[in-house]
Structures are given as C-alpha cells and as structure tokens.
C-alpha cells in the first residue's frame, strides 16, 4: 500500500496532535499547518524528526502557503477553527474569520486539486434543540444574533453549507463529522472545556465552578475513539457527501460530572454554582441537553466508543 500524504489544518491542537501522532504510527506522511494561536507546539514537539512528519507554522488564511500544501497532499483533515465558548465570546471577529474564510480557502483549493476533505464540525450546530438524542438531519434552533455564543454555531453551519455546495457543484469529496465534547490528554481548560477546567480546580483546591443549575446534560468521548472514527470515515468511500455525529450516547449532568472528578481527585474543593452571565456574558444561553444519536455512524463504520465515562475520567483525573 502506498503512503498517503495527509495535511492536517490545526494539527497542533488537542485533537489534531493526536491525529498526527496516530497517522505517523500508521506510516502515513503528515504535514501540520497551525499558527499556534490556540494550538501548542508542545502537543506535537515529540513528532519532530519522525519520518514523514513536517510542521508549518502559518495560518490557513495565508492562501499562497495553503495552496502549496494542498497540492502536495493526498487528503486533508480540516480541523483548524476557533475553539471553545470562551474564546468565541472574547474574539468574535477573529473566530468568524478563521471559521468562514479559512474553510472557504480549504474548500476552493481542495476542489481545484480534487483532494478529499474531512471536516470537523460541532454539536453546537443543533443549538437549543431539546431532543434527547440529536440526529444529523434534525432542525436547528438558535438564539438571537445579539448573543455572541450562537455565532460559533452559525459559522460552523456556514462551513457545512459551503463544503456541501462544493461537493454538489464541483465534485469536492468531503466528509463532515460533528464532534460532541472530545476529551483526553493535552486538552486544556483555557477556552471553556469543562473536564480540564474542573480537574485543574479540584487538584489545586480552588472552588469547582459549575455554570447554571448544573442539571444540563452532556456526553464525553475519549480522544482515541474520536481519532479512530475520523480515520475510518476518511477512508470510507460511501461516507463522501455525508454528515456524522461522533460522540457517546452516555449522558451525565455537569453537576454529577463535577462530583465524580472531585471524588477521583480526592479533592476538598467546594462545588459552587455560577450564573452563566457571570461566567460568560450578559444574556448567555446554553443547551439543556446535548447527546448524539449514533445510529448513522454505526451503520457506516460500526462505530462504538471503547472508553466509557468512568474509565475516561480515571485516565484524565488520576
């Protein structure tokens, strides 16, 4: 089997670095492009000098550099994006530029070269949908444009529309996956990610802050399960032009999650409830439930998470 050259945009981020590491272990060639605005060199520094690995510190907004990299690759894992609720609220213009213009650059250049693209979208797409199990073809329910957090959902939806339009009109081979709270080593809580934030607070003895009433339900997926699904979808010929939820159907309230992390870390920290407006911005809105229906991805690649929540937390917290 010939070696593939894989381009990973945002490859120095939490998920991208694990993908790069896995592909290198598989014997694939990997080029990472990342401007290190939210990604970190430490995530991929251990890959320096590995056969087939190359790092380019640059933004996907630099179309000239991106063009050369796409010309030299076989497939593109497009992960580069503004990430985390806090980052989106604090940097609304930059977030929209990266998510929309950056994806437009990838789509246009990949289409010209007929290079396959796997795009990581988000469960934020579903907005305030109250359905307990979210399906890929569900309607979307969003809040007012005056609430900045909904801009992320809208930009990622625009990316999906754009990539699917390139697929239909120009034949771009694209696969879209919507991620539901991936977690694992190298993830940081700087941009609003809940497990690393609660872990850090528990280990330092600081109050463990839970937003709202803590009864909102979420599901969490370990990084190895996500990477396995990502590579399988990229290599599945019938996945082209399709959208897939990738996550876990094992739900938990955030308050219960905090209690589990506190117990595992043997922390004496107090768990405190913080109003959303105090944590983020005035008028902030959140989703009550965000758990995926995984029936579609099971049919395509027989996907089933191997790491359950309790094991996941033991690996991360202990």
UniProtKB/TrEMBL annotation:
Predominant location category: Golgi
Gene Ontology cellular-component annotations: cytoplasm
Pfam families in alphabetical order: GDP_Man_Dehyd (PF16363)
Cofactors, names only: NAD(+)
EC number per UniProt: 4.1.1.35
Subcellular location: Golgi apparatus, Golgi stack membrane
BP GO annotations: D-xylose metabolic process; UDP-D-xylose biosynthetic process
Pathway(s) the chain acts in: Nucleotide-sugar biosynthesis; UDP-alpha-D-xylose biosynthesis; UDP-alpha-D-xylose from UDP-alpha-D-glucuronate: step 1/1
Membrane topology term: Single-pass type II membrane protein
Top EC class, one word: lyase
Domain of life: Bacteria
Location of the NAD(P)-binding domain: 7-315
Keywords: Decarboxylase, Golgi apparatus, Lyase, Membrane, NAD, Signal-anchor, Transmembrane, Transmembrane helix
GO MF annotations in UniProt: NAD+ binding; UDP-glucuronate decarboxylase activity
Family: Belongs to the NAD(P)-dependent epimerase/dehydratase family. UDP-glucuronic acid decarboxylase subfamily.
Protein name: UDP-glucuronate decarboxylase
